[in-house]
Amino acid sequence: MQTQTQSLGFSMGDSRRSMQGMSYSDAVERVETLAAENAVVVFSLSSCCMCHVVKRLFCSLGVGPTVYELDDMTGGAELERALRNLVGDSQAVPAVFVGGKLLGGLDRVMAAHISGALIPQLKEAGALWL
């Protein structure tokens, strides 16, 4: 299954406006808005191996996450800082949201997968039907 990659300056309708220099609260609000728009959202950096792993995991489960590559987005650095605080770790990405709720980074996604909790969360969010 393909992932859906979004770039704020390219395929999002109202998001062409510049986000550079946005306040922290604006960045958090933008992250929350983007996270709520799809069942599974991954904030990523295109060169991050941990991001690649989490995207491949979802694809292997039959889930096509919406992926926001922060290094390709206008204002991506501000969003990355907001995510670092939301995730509560020095590593801001990958930041995974399921059903609009923060699941966490790779460690929490893998822990949920190994424990068997990930599939029910994906089903509840409408990302999986079987």
TrEMBL record:
Primary location group: cytoplasm
GO cellular component: cytoplasm
GO molecular function: metal ion binding
The entry's keywords: Cytoplasm, Heme, Iron, Metal-binding, Redox-active center
Claim: RNA-binding is one of the keywords in the record: no
Subcellular localization, as worded in the UniProt entry: Cytoplasm
Domain Cytochrome c: from-to ranges: 34-130
Pfam families listed in its UniProt record: Glutaredoxin
Record family assignment: Belongs to the glutaredoxin family. CC-type subfamily.
Name this protein carries in UniProt: Cytochrome c domain-containing protein
Classification lineage: Eukaryota, Viridiplantae, Streptophyta, Embryophyta, Marchantiophyta
